[in-house]
Amino acid sequence: MIALSDLPPPLASLVQRQLKAMGLYDGTTEGIPGPKTEAAYAAYLKSLETKAAVTATGNNVAMLEAFIGIA
After folding, report:
1. Terminal Cα-to-Cα distance of the chain (whole angstroms)
2. Euclidean distance between CA atoms 42 and 4, whole angstroms
3. CB-hemisphere CA count at 13 Å for 2?
4. Quick one: pLDDT at residue 50?
């Protein structure tokens, strides 16, 4: 899993807004990832696994890039 705490605040904020839009996150979108952001991101990844959308390589970086729309 990507260490969300390593993301720059603007990118972390984008992730938080996307998670919120998906109904997975109810915290702030200030770009400071905490336990709620981590839990929401983990729930997002788990939802991908249950939908068989995770590749055999488990490339979480590519998933994060696709998630935030930069890929």
Report:
1. 17
2. 11
3. 23
4. 66
pTM over 0.85: no
4 has a pLDDT exceeding 50:
yes
Side chain identity at 66, as an amino acid letter?
A: A
HSE-CB for 45 with a 13 A CA cutoff = 18
DSSP alpha helix (H) spans, 3-70: 9-21, 35-50, 60-68
- Condensed to tens digits (0 to 9), the pLDDT of residues 17-62 reads 999 999 999 999 999 999 999 999 999 988 877 665 545 555 667 6
Pairwise CA distance, residues 4 & 30, whole Å: 13
**CB of 21 within 8 A of CB of 36?**
no
Q: 45, 54 in Cβ contact below 8 A?
A: yes
Residue whose tokens read 């939802």: 47
